[in-house]
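About this split. The held-out portion is used to measure sequence recovery: a designer receives only the C-alpha coordinates and must propose an amino acid at every position. Recovery is the fraction of positions where the proposal matches the reference. Here is one held-out target exactly as it appears in the evaluation file.
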Protein backbone atom coordinates (compact mmCIF):
# COMPACT_ATOMS: atom_id res chain seq x y z
CA UNK A 1 0.00 0.00 0.00
CA UNK A 2 1.07 3.56 -0.61
CA UNK A 3 1.99 5.92 2.18
CA UNK A 4 1.22 9.61 2.12
CA UNK A 5 4.12 11.84 1.05
CA UNK A 6 5.45 14.37 3.49
CA UNK A 7 4.65 18.06 3.30
CA UNK A 8 8.33 18.64 2.61
CA UNK A 9 8.09 16.40 -0.45
CA UNK A 10 5.09 18.30 -1.76
CA UNK A 11 6.84 21.65 -1.38
CA UNK A 12 9.95 20.83 -3.39
CA UNK A 13 9.19 23.57 -5.93
CA UNK A 14 8.31 26.58 -3.74
CA UNK A 15 6.22 29.48 -4.97
CA UNK A 16 8.98 31.93 -4.03
CA UNK A 17 11.34 30.30 -6.54
CA UNK A 18 9.02 30.47 -9.51
CA UNK A 19 7.31 27.12 -8.89
CA UNK A 20 3.93 28.47 -9.91
CA UNK A 21 5.32 29.77 -13.20
CA UNK A 22 7.03 26.44 -13.88
CA UNK A 23 3.80 24.52 -13.32
CA UNK A 24 1.87 26.95 -15.53
CA UNK A 25 4.32 26.31 -18.35
CA UNK A 26 4.40 22.53 -17.90
CA UNK A 27 0.64 22.10 -17.67
CA UNK A 28 0.00 24.39 -20.62
CA UNK A 29 2.49 22.45 -22.72
CA UNK A 30 1.00 19.13 -21.61
CA UNK A 31 -2.54 20.23 -22.43
CA UNK A 32 -1.49 21.50 -25.85
CA UNK A 33 0.84 18.66 -26.85
CA UNK A 34 -0.03 15.46 -24.98
CA UNK A 35 -3.38 15.35 -23.17
CA UNK A 36 -5.49 14.98 -26.31
CA UNK A 37 -3.48 12.00 -27.55
CA UNK A 38 -3.86 10.23 -24.22
CA UNK A 39 -7.62 10.83 -24.17
CA UNK A 40 -7.92 9.61 -27.76
CA UNK A 41 -6.08 6.42 -26.93
CA UNK A 42 -8.39 5.75 -23.98
CA UNK A 43 -11.44 6.49 -26.11
CA UNK A 44 -10.28 4.09 -28.83
CA UNK A 45 -9.80 1.22 -26.39
CA UNK A 46 -13.21 1.88 -24.90
CA UNK A 47 -14.71 1.25 -28.33
CA UNK A 48 -13.15 -2.17 -28.92
CA UNK A 49 -15.79 -4.69 -30.06
CA UNK A 50 -15.10 -7.23 -27.30
CA UNK A 51 -12.93 -7.84 -24.25
CA UNK A 52 -10.91 -10.42 -26.18
CA UNK A 53 -10.11 -7.94 -28.93
CA UNK A 54 -9.25 -5.31 -26.32
CA UNK A 55 -6.87 -7.72 -24.56
CA UNK A 56 -5.18 -8.77 -27.77
CA UNK A 57 -4.79 -5.21 -29.05
CA UNK A 58 -3.52 -3.96 -25.69
CA UNK A 59 -1.08 -6.85 -25.34
CA UNK A 60 0.27 -6.34 -28.83
CA UNK A 61 0.83 -2.65 -27.92
CA UNK A 62 -0.54 -1.37 -31.22
CA UNK A 63 -2.60 1.72 -31.91
CA UNK A 64 -5.50 2.33 -34.29
CA UNK A 65 -3.06 2.38 -37.23
CA UNK A 66 -1.57 -1.00 -36.24
CA UNK A 67 1.63 0.78 -35.23
CA UNK A 68 3.56 -0.25 -32.12
CA UNK A 69 3.38 2.34 -29.34
CA UNK A 70 6.64 4.18 -28.74
CA UNK A 71 6.91 2.89 -25.18
CA UNK A 72 6.94 -0.70 -26.39
CA UNK A 73 8.68 -0.53 -29.76
CA UNK A 74 11.92 -2.00 -28.42
CA UNK A 75 10.30 -5.11 -26.95
CA UNK A 76 11.14 -8.19 -28.95
CA UNK A 77 8.36 -9.71 -31.02
CA UNK A 78 8.63 -13.06 -29.24
CA UNK A 79 8.07 -11.37 -25.88
CA UNK A 80 4.98 -9.56 -27.20
CA UNK A 81 3.66 -12.84 -28.65
CA UNK A 82 4.17 -14.67 -25.33
CA UNK A 83 2.57 -11.86 -23.32
CA UNK A 84 -0.41 -11.73 -25.67
CA UNK A 85 -0.98 -15.49 -25.33
CA UNK A 86 -0.70 -15.31 -21.54
CA UNK A 87 -3.19 -12.47 -21.27
CA UNK A 88 -5.67 -14.01 -23.70
CA UNK A 89 -5.57 -17.17 -21.58
CA UNK A 90 -6.54 -14.99 -18.61
CA UNK A 91 -9.59 -13.42 -20.28
CA UNK A 92 -12.08 -14.87 -17.80
CA UNK A 93 -10.11 -13.59 -14.81
CA UNK A 94 -9.59 -10.18 -16.41
CA UNK A 95 -13.34 -9.86 -16.95
CA UNK A 96 -14.00 -10.08 -13.20
CA UNK A 97 -11.64 -7.40 -11.87
CA UNK A 98 -13.29 -4.64 -9.90
CA UNK A 99 -10.46 -2.08 -9.68
CA UNK A 100 -7.49 -0.91 -11.68
CA UNK A 101 -5.12 -2.04 -8.94
CA UNK A 102 -6.48 -5.58 -9.23
CA UNK A 103 -6.24 -5.41 -13.01
CA UNK A 104 -2.62 -4.27 -12.91
CA UNK A 105 -1.74 -6.97 -10.39
CA UNK A 106 -3.31 -9.63 -12.60
CA UNK A 107 -1.53 -8.41 -15.73
CA UNK A 108 1.77 -8.29 -13.85
CA UNK A 109 1.31 -11.80 -12.49
CA UNK A 110 0.68 -13.19 -15.96
CA UNK A 111 3.54 -11.57 -17.87
CA UNK A 112 6.29 -10.24 -15.62
CA UNK A 113 8.43 -13.38 -15.92
CA UNK A 114 8.58 -13.10 -19.71
CA UNK A 115 12.02 -11.91 -20.78
CA UNK A 116 11.80 -8.33 -22.02
CA UNK A 117 8.50 -7.49 -20.33
CA UNK A 118 8.81 -4.80 -17.67
CA UNK A 119 6.81 -2.53 -15.41
CA UNK A 120 5.90 -0.02 -18.09
CA UNK A 121 4.49 -2.68 -20.41
CA UNK A 122 2.38 -4.03 -17.53
CA UNK A 123 1.04 -0.58 -16.67
CA UNK A 124 0.31 0.45 -20.25
CA UNK A 125 -1.36 -2.86 -21.06
CA UNK A 126 -3.49 -2.73 -17.92
CA UNK A 127 -4.47 0.87 -18.70
CA UNK A 128 -5.63 -0.09 -22.20
CA UNK A 129 -7.59 -3.12 -21.03
CA UNK A 130 -8.95 -1.03 -18.16
CA UNK A 131 -10.26 1.54 -20.62
CA UNK A 132 -12.48 -1.16 -22.14
CA UNK A 133 -13.55 -2.44 -18.72
CA UNK A 134 -14.14 1.03 -17.29
CA UNK A 135 -11.46 0.53 -14.62
CA UNK A 136 -9.06 3.44 -14.32
CA UNK A 137 -6.25 4.32 -11.88
CA UNK A 138 -7.26 6.25 -8.79
CA UNK A 139 -3.62 6.87 -7.85
CA UNK A 140 -0.35 7.22 -9.74
CA UNK A 141 1.51 3.95 -10.23
CA UNK A 142 5.28 4.10 -10.35
CA UNK A 143 7.43 2.50 -12.99
CA UNK A 144 10.77 3.59 -14.39
CA UNK A 145 9.64 6.91 -15.87
CA UNK A 146 7.18 7.97 -13.19
CA UNK A 147 9.58 6.89 -10.46
CA UNK A 148 12.23 9.23 -11.86
CA UNK A 149 9.69 12.06 -11.93
CA UNK A 150 8.57 11.35 -8.37
CA UNK A 151 12.19 11.28 -7.20
CA UNK A 152 12.87 14.62 -8.92
CA UNK A 153 9.89 16.12 -7.08
CA UNK A 154 11.15 14.82 -3.74
CA UNK A 155 8.29 12.34 -3.33
CA UNK A 156 8.57 8.84 -1.91
CA UNK A 157 9.54 7.10 -5.13
CA UNK A 158 10.09 3.75 -3.38
CA UNK A 159 6.33 3.22 -3.23
CA UNK A 160 4.30 1.01 -5.56
CA UNK A 161 1.93 3.95 -6.15
CA UNK A 162 1.35 7.46 -4.85
CA UNK A 163 -1.95 8.95 -3.73
CA UNK A 164 -3.11 12.14 -5.41
CA UNK A 165 -2.74 13.96 -2.09
CA UNK A 166 0.99 13.25 -2.24
CA UNK A 167 1.47 15.58 -5.20
CA UNK A 168 1.93 19.35 -5.46
CA UNK A 169 -1.40 21.23 -5.42
CA UNK A 170 -1.09 22.02 -9.13
CA UNK A 171 -1.42 18.31 -9.99
CA UNK A 172 -4.08 17.18 -7.54
CA UNK A 173 -7.00 18.17 -9.74
CA UNK A 174 -5.69 16.13 -12.67
CA UNK A 175 -6.65 12.55 -13.48
CA UNK A 176 -4.01 10.03 -12.31
CA UNK A 177 -3.43 8.85 -15.89
CA UNK A 178 -2.41 12.39 -16.84
CA UNK A 179 -0.24 12.88 -13.76
CA UNK A 180 1.54 9.64 -14.69
CA UNK A 181 2.28 11.12 -18.11
CA UNK A 182 3.43 14.43 -16.65
CA UNK A 183 5.89 12.72 -14.32
CA UNK A 184 7.41 10.84 -17.26
CA UNK A 185 7.50 13.64 -19.80
CA UNK A 186 8.79 16.46 -17.58
CA UNK A 187 11.01 14.59 -15.11
CA UNK A 188 14.13 16.36 -16.37
CA UNK A 189 12.43 19.72 -15.88
CA UNK A 190 11.68 18.81 -12.26
CA UNK A 191 15.32 17.87 -11.74
CA UNK A 192 16.49 21.18 -13.18
CA UNK A 193 14.16 23.02 -10.81
CA UNK A 194 15.61 21.20 -7.82
CA UNK A 195 19.19 22.00 -8.90
CA UNK A 196 18.28 25.68 -9.22
CA UNK A 197 16.76 25.62 -5.77
CA UNK A 198 19.88 23.99 -4.31
CA UNK A 199 22.20 26.56 -5.90
CA UNK A 200 20.11 29.44 -4.59
CA UNK A 201 20.11 28.03 -1.11
CA UNK A 202 23.88 27.49 -1.16
CA UNK A 203 24.39 31.23 -1.80
CA UNK A 204 22.45 32.23 1.32
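Reference sequence for scoring:
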Amino acid sequence: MSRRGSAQGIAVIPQSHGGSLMWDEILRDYDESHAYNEDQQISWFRRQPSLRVAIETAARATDDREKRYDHQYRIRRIAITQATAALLASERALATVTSFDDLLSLVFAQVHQIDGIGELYCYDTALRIGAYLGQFPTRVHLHRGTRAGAMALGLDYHQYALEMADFPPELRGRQPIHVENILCIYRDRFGASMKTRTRRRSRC
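Annotator remark: The first strand starts at residue 140 and ends at 141.
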